[in-house]
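hi! just following up on the protien thing from before. the input was this:
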Amino acid sequence: MMACCAVVAATLAIAAPSSAADWKPTHPINLIVPWSAGGATDQFTRVVAGELEKALGQTIVVVNQVGGSGAIGTMSALEAPHDGYTWTAGAAQDLGAYETLGSLKTRITDWHLFLSVANIPILSVNEKSPYKTARELIDAMAANPGKISVGSAGVTSTGHAAIDRIAAAAGVQYRHVSYDGGNPAVISTVSGETDATAQLASEQVEMIRGKRLRPLATVANEPVTVEGYGTIPPLSATLPGFTAPLSYFGIFIPKGVPDDVIATLEKAWRETIANSEVVKKFAASRGALFAPSYGDEAQKIAFPAVQANAWMLYNSGQAKVSPDTVGIPKP
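and the predicted 3d structure came back as:
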């Protein structure tokens, strides 16, 4: 069971230390969050950045640059000088979606991944909604094709991937309403602007505890326990056989930066982030799994979600380019 305040997750295998010299940044680092303030990427990035500042001895300036479902901010990091002073952040699966969508020519292999947590989506409705269970909401979608509105952080977001996965598994249609971040998407359901959301647990827990949202199911095959609320059942209890790959979040640095930058970040990840009680406790409080990794291991564990998301976007007609032509074979 995944527990919001008692997450027990093994730290993923960490690569061997590099022999390169330590990098000592001489001025602040810009860390671009390509989503709005308050969402999952923003929340976790700021906590991790605070820990990294201690390790690097330098300020990390977190900047929110929204637009293009994450593509605008990601492009800014990609096009900045590759000197190690401009990073970006988000869900690793997003890096596999941009090229298939035709929004940005980049692949997950173009980046150094420094992952910190795995986030779990939750299917929720407004507390006053008539839908009491996931089955009732899915039945309403079946009875009213394209009428039930679902708010997400955009077509590349984990929340959008989650609701698309539900629709495909249940054979139903819904009306997608896109926002520039997970927090606005969640607020849209709280306010009644949309009927439901499948954004991340970390973006919903406060509204769930405050009884502003009614969680119906985790978009997973495992339940989640939220302190102050209780246990949220898995969608697999409603749709037998339903599974969803974990979506890993972290910081991304474009390849081509000096080797000593990456060696220093790997050391900081191994010695600081992997042992950070601050990040671990924050993850537990937000319904996420503490799962730090980098290097080849990070690429390996992130790829199942990249594959699933890219092919789902393509098969549903939302992506312009077949994933297998950009290095993403079918799962």
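The chain has ten helices and 14 strands.
The first strand starts at residue 2 and ends at 3.
cheers
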